[in-house]
Specification:
The protein is α/β, with parallel strands linked by helices. It is 38% helix and 14% strand. The strands form two sheets. The chain has a five-stranded parallel sheet with strand order 7-6-5-8-9, sandwiched between helices. It has a four-stranded parallel sheet with strand order 2-1-3-4. Helix 5 crosses helix 11. The longest helix is centred in the last third of the chain and has 20 residues, at 285-304.
Length: 308
Amino acid sequence: MSELSVRHLLGIKYLNQKDIDLIFETADHFKEVLGRPIKKVPSLRDITIANIFFESSTRTRLSFELAEKRLSADVINFSAAQSSVKKGETLIDTVNNILSMKVDMVVMRHPNPGAGIFLSRHVKASIVNAGDGAHEHPTQALLDSYSIREKLGGVGGKKVVIVGDILHSRVALSNIFALQMQGAEVRVCGPKTLIPKYVESLGVRVEPDLRTALQWCDVANMLRVQNERMDMSYFPSTREYSRQFGIDKALLESLGKEIVIMHPGPINRGVEITSDVADSHQSIILNQVENGVAIRMAVIYLLASQIK
């Protein structure tokens, strides 16, 4: 069987095209499994996985947990908000305590960029980065690319615009790496204050006007404004943001062509996109959620196969 070139999934930038192809092929198989009456396979019956979330998460945590249980792994859930971390325990102490319970894999979300990389150097378990600060969110980028491939038949040669809060978004950075690796062209669009200075050095063009960006693209990935990461005001008001960078049905219909609408969730309905856009036939938001389980099953399965 083919193997991933990495022992951990810390970020898209550590993967290569072959890794992405292998993850997608494996996800295709698991997607077929998820369509069966019995949605479970005994693949990881002897593997124990700890989900360690130092930041609140609903969709990603549930998606990982479901993926692990569909593979028949033993699952430990750990939320730092209700843990000894609040009493001053360090990241390494927390994880070592969990590893002493003989855990094979750790799925971790952490507010500090690079937390997964730091951990991978200090513990024996396989690490899956479920989001580290505003750095990377690799499984989200993989499921986004996988959803584009499913909808449009491939990612290479497609034009994708990422709209919104690029500055605070780990989803944007992982998506840029993943899409470019597969031969897509990427642009970003949003308020000047929410576009990081370095983005053009990644080979990404900044398009300040939303209508121009939408007329150019095949796919628009609409990001949430991450108010919880903001220590100051980056734009005048939510209403002003929505007027300049939100998509409603009238704007979508005025383009004279159909584009695919994506959103990593949770959606602020009426801010990034209106309800009639989120629920329209051009939206693949629910497909992204469904594909998230298959992609996470694939990643966990492939990493677990390297555990000796």
